[in-house]
Amino acid sequence: MADVRSQKEADKEPMSIIFCLISREAVMLKKKLCVWFLCCFFPTILFAQDIDLTTPQGKVLLTLSGNITEQNSDGALKLDRDQLLQFQQRTISTETRWTEGMNVFKGPLVRDVLAAAGATGAMVSAEAANEYKIEIPFEDFESFDVILAIENNGEPLTVRSKGPVWVIYPWSEDAALKNGTYYSRAIWQLVKFDVHD
Q1: What is the pTM of this model?
Q2: Cβ neighbour number for residue 47 with a 10 Å cutoff
Q3: What contacts 18, CB < 8 A, 6 or more positions away?
Q4: Which of 38, 88, 144, 166 is in the most buried spot, having the most CB atoms within 10 Å?
Q5: Mean pLDDT computed over 12-21
């Protein structure tokens, strides 16, 4: 019996060594991946946060007011096109009620712009150039990749094409967004965001 047990224990030893080596390799791989992530993405994150929020030099496209900590003009934060372009640009390919076929919209995420402004609250009062207003809950910007579109199909949005700034939801990515509530919040010719509770 002793010989049988010794043989079984001897058979287990190579397996133990193999498992030990695999575990060690997994730990090393995990460390390498962490280093790779920090080297590749951390500088990008830092750079993305380095947005020039001083007084805009160009035509003001969007004014943020209300519960914000960053201001550059009379208690408000005004941004021109160049400043909006400094944010990481997100692309949304989607159909809309107002355009034909699939369109490719591009612009910063609303939540990134609000974060840069130091916005805190529960709602945003969005106002268009024609004084149309709509209340949009913060939850929308946290739950969905809503953007401030400044381009469509590679061309800058103009007043004629519902720009220069148009709130765009990823309708083609989420069927739940295809209803009147979210369509009504897709305000075009956007000029103001007022943040409040």
Answers
A1: 0.76
A2: 11
A3: none
A4: 166
A5: 50
